[in-house]
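Running this now, will post back.
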Amino acid sequence: MGENWLSNAYEGMSRRQFLARMSAAGIGLTGFAMAAESVAGEVITTPGDGIIATDGVVSVEGFKIPIYEARPAASGKYPVVLVIPEIFGMHAHIKDVTRRFAREGFMSITFEPYAREGGVLNLPDIDAVRKVVDPIPDARVMGDLDAIMTYATKHPAGQAERIGVTGFCRGGMYTLLFAAHNRGIKAAVAWYGQIRPAITPGVRSFGPLDVAEKITCPVLGLYGAADMGIPVADVKEMEAALKAAGKTAEFVLYPEAPHAFHADYRPSYRPEAAKDAWGRCTAWFDKYLKK
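Update: finished.
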């Protein structure tokens, strides 16, 4: 599965180092945090100077979904980037990425997709996380994103007609699905999101490849050629399907990069691939949201 990053997470790193990095990044999974020690210097932390970052909520059918938003401190209106979290939800790393977009001149918003379940950061292991997350219907996540997008269009610091979406791991899959679902999205960047996820009645009726022709915005895909959960052939097929449907698409495969190569708190982190991919991501949004 795309989220099974543990399968190649320990490359070149001891279990203790892995646990420490998880802990330093604010991943409170007790099964991972046991015996952890601080290695905060190995994890990227984006300073808050020059930006405004705040916590908030967006109401969806009476439920208040926690959000975190960041934007440049200077007054004005900014293009918006919605950030969809990994399977662990809105943890410290995802908030840091949100601040990174603010420093690039965007208003950025992320959220906690699993708030109704109480979040997943305190569960004992990845199996327990998946028992909570896997049954959640894609339609519910799309509805939450619709509400957050509506919030963004009304935000005094947001440019309502210039909204993009990005996401990591499962959030990368949701990025592609949301680009097909909501035509208001003007640009999308998917980070190693599954192309052919498992179809489950009541949870998921289709994957990104099935709805490629419904995507109207330019799409950038950032994938690792050594990802053990996403075949290279799937990545190439998604790009080909989008281009065959007349869409603007570019999918990049990083040689030898595993799943989650951008996650600087994991042993899967590959600095060179992550830096190049981040540059491509921000350039994509610059081109299609700031023009």
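The chain has eight helices and eight strands. More later if anyone needs it.
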